[in-house]
Amino acid sequence: MNTKSKIFHNLITFCLLLTTLTLLTSMASCTWKRRKPLLSSTHNIQIAGIPDKILVEFEEVIDGKPLNETVWDNVSGHFWDVTESNQIGFTQNYQTSVYPTGVEGTVIPVTKVTQTRIVIPFGRIFSNTFESVISANTAEPYFSYNQNQSKDTQNSLLISDVLKVSIDSFKVWEAPLNHINLTVMGECSYTTGNATIKTIKFSKKLLNQKLGGIFSTHNKFIKEMNRIANNFSEQVVWEILGELFQS
After folding, report:
1. Which long-range CB contacts under 8 A does 28-31 form with residues at least 24 apart?
2. Residue 240 pLDDT > 60, yes or no?
3. Exposed, middle or buried: residue 171 (CB in 10 Å: 0-12, 13-18, 19+)?
4. What phi-psi label fits residue 67: left (phi over 0), alpha (psi between -120 and 50 degrees) or beta?
5. Out of 44, 84, 94, 247, which residue is the most buried by the measure of CB atoms under 10 Å away?
6. Domains of the chain from N-terminus onward
């Protein structure tokens, strides 16, 4: 190879390397946020024994913030976010690494997921489910998301029957790949006038729920997340009200 050919060859190699590095620098790490509007279900579960006029008070998980605006994920736990409370989905972080091919001036970029953040607006899902079931089983349902509002409603409407519901813990995580897991713990008390009739602790797990396969779209994954979370919430509410009023 003559001198001019060597210079040309080296120049081409340098340009290839520079182009590859520039491309990989822009792709070295990226984040894809996937969300869809939250879809709530209508629940027609029949539960005998619920009073005709009742107030349900959803206690705050975060001081000063209503339960239906409280969201959970598998990274930071619970947080308040009005926007996120009306949608459901996940965020994936990607990292690109490069590996030599053995051919001068060329590399293979390999991109992989480094973290998947699963976002579930369980405060809204749970409270919507509770409201739907109560409304299907009583003539005059009332709902409150803070203690002051609850007292005002109770006094002004002369409501004697009150349910107080609190979520102590909710967790979501992925294991194995493309499978979701949910757990919840909390407390619910039923009072009439100044008398506490019954207080129960509730807890439930739903494990290894498949969201999709390797060829599923992100819309498919989110749709399954929504369906699974709604069904989970329905089971929890049914068990709470069944234990309070039918046992």
Report:
1. 28/95, 28/96, 29/93, 29/94, 29/95, 29/96, 29/114, 30/93, 30/94, 31/91, 31/92, 31/93, 31/94
2. yes
3. middle
4. alpha
5. 84
6. 31-245 (3.40.50)
Q: Give dist(CA 77, CA 65) in Å, integer.
A: 15
Contact 64, 53 (CB under 8 A): no
- For the stretch 145-202, pLDDT in tens is 988 888 888 888 899 999 999 999 999 999 999 999 999 999 999 999 989 999 999 9
CA distance 90 to 68: 19
Query: Is residue 176 reached through a cis peptide bond, with omega within 30 degrees of 0 on the bond before it?
Result: yes
Reported as a single tens digit per residue, the pLDDT across 10-59 is: 555 544 454 554 544 444 568 889 999 999 988 778 899 999 999 999 99
